[in-house]
Automatic annotation (TrEMBL):
Keyword Ribonucleoprotein in record: no
Taxonomic path: Bacteria, Pseudomonadati, Pseudomonadota, Alphaproteobacteria, Hyphomicrobiales
Keywords annotated in UniProt: Aminotransferase, Pyridoxal phosphate, Transferase
Alphabetized PANTHER family for the sequence: AMINOTRANSFERASE, AMINOTRANSFERASE CLASS-III
GO molecular function: transaminase activity
Statement: the UniProt record of this protein carries the keyword Transferase: yes
InterPro entries assigned to the protein according to its UniProt record, in alphabetical order: Aminotrans_3 (IPR005814), Aminotrans_3_PPA_site (IPR049704), PyrdxlP-dep_Trfase (IPR015424), PyrdxlP-dep_Trfase_major (IPR015421), PyrdxlP-dep_Trfase_small (IPR015422)
PROSITE patterns: AA_TRANSFER_CLASS_3
SUPFAM superfamilies attached to this UniProt entry: PLP-dependent transferases (SSF53383)
Cofactor(s) essential for the protein: pyridoxal 5'-phosphate
Domain of life: Bacteria
Name of this chain's protein: Aminotransferase y4uB
Family statement: Belongs to the class-III pyridoxal-phosphate-dependent aminotransferase family.
Amino acid sequence: MHELLRNTPDLETLDKRYLFHPFTALADHERNGPMVIVKGEGVWLEDNHGRRYIDGMAGLWCVNVGYGRREIADAIHHQAVTLPYFHAFSSWATDTPILLAEKIIEMAPVPMSKVFFGQSGSDANDTQVKLVWYYNNARGKPEKKKIIARNRGYHGVTVVSASLTGMPALHSGFDLPLPFVRYTTAPYRLWEATPGMSDAAFTAKLARDLEDLILAEGPETVGAVIMEPVMGAGGVIVPPEGYYVAIRAVLDKYDVLLIADEVISGFGRLGTMFGSTAMAMQPDLITVAKGITSAYVPLSGCIVSEKVWRTIVDGQSKLGAFGHGYTYSAHPLAAAAALANLKIIEDDGLVAQAASRGALMHEKLQQAFAGHPLVGEIRGRGLVGAVEFVAKKEPATRFDPTLKIAGRIVKAALAEGLITRALPHADTISFSPPFVISEEEVALMVSRARKAVDTVMDELV
Ligand code: PLP
């Protein structure tokens, strides 16, 4: 039955009738229906009409080892027939999460102590906030609960993590953000720096903005700051040189924890195993998801420093047993998939490959777009990149948002056989392909993107 249905256009009808899509313009969807993907191999996807696409986004920045990796499928199968599930509450354990936690602590970019497993980046960031709150309750600092995130930061969509996400479109309609969240300036050179500003001056301004915010709120009320090493969905924004050193100095001054949201950057995307290493970030807590299993099954983790861990353990005498955890925390099948995925990344040298294919991608993006009159900035690091379009370069001027420039480019790219993404609140398209992308496929991806841009720009004149 399933096999029969897989390749029939009736899937579109059934989808429109029954499936409530995430992050979708629902009224448009009711009219136009879905794009149905049925197969994947390497960086290539195939839809139910047999059309093939380069997946320039690795799904949602996550299928890092590419599609169709038998080693992960075999590990999932083996775990499913051996022990599909048992929980980790009340000191119970299964084997694969123990081995995975050990591996992650060994790999961590700064000395770390424990890993708490969840299912998604969103729930992991929720857990991080609860850890910060528990930590400060245990220390007898019950006022120290505010969390500072950044404008344009993306941290997920649960009630807490959507509040951390600095995008108004994810708040309106949902009565968010929650009142304990504040936002500081994004390290977004194109719109936040003055023309010609040096990295040092921009870094100093950003650190000052954060310090001013902490002082205005009262340092005794601020528990933590959450930051992606390189901002992903908010625009692929790479901070200036020295940024995290300056930020860390501010946080140390006011006894504020740093959460590195490595949901995109963790496990190789920036060309180093962790983004914290690439960006000289010294976090107290690290969030991972996506690349931990290359999205073959859902899994996330909160990596916790000894300082936070020990305070939480010591706090139990006052606060009682740790009352937080999911049915699927430390899921053995997800951990088996993660172990197989990390083995591929290590055995195949995929972090170094992400760095070298990333360098090639940036070279090709520069060649294709640097001279373009409507390109405001080409950004990125490792195997993540973005091109931002502007109506005018000097002074940088945005397009009228109703023109939906990036959305139209993404549509035109699809017609060329390329999947890319329009990022919210800017005319930016992004690239984040699987690490297994070949040199030829990098060139093809960028040339298809350029054709798509030309199509849309031709419509404008
Ligand atoms: N944090 C970052 C940096 C992300 O990019 C994402 C998802 O894109 C999330 C958190 C949320 O992860 P999830 O969609 O698995 O809940």
